[in-house]
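debug: dumping io for the single-chain case to check the tokenizer round-trip. Nothing else runs in this session.
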Amino acid sequence: MKIGIDYIGIVEMVDVVDKDANILYKTPKTNAHDLGLLHKTVIAEVIDRKERWVLVKQAPDRQDAGQYVSPVGGHVKSGESEVDALYREAEEELGLKDFRYKFIGKAVFNRRILGRQENHYFILYEIYSDEKPKLNHESVGYELFTKQKLKKQMINNPKKFGDAFYFIIKTFYPSIQS
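debug: decoded output
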């Protein structure tokens, strides 16, 4: 068994879940990826009061490198609530601490990338904030998109966006693609 160490030297544990998000057992995050085990990940679309979506451009060492993706996304640690994970990830990835949010839905996203099997149980939220993002090492930039601009860019420049973001749009926001 491979033991996963996160960037501060601690083994990051996640809960393996079934298709209904019932917890089965916990395992190191790297094992979940190496073995393709289903585990929870919070994702959030950040929307400002002008209804513009904040998307981040992924760093070269990340999945969907160089492409725009949802600005908040990260694993729910074993024993952590989904909302606590949302707040932790929003602060880590964008510096957001004080915001309103709304639960949107859940869906399984499974793909092979970066030599591992990501079998994520996406838990999607919308975050409402006008705060300017403070990016961490996972992103190299951000851009604001109206729904119209997003729809147009997805048609005219499809490689600008990552696969996980397309999955979110197709699953939860089909009107943007149509």
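debug: round-trip ok. Confidence is low (pLDDT under 50) at residues 1-8.
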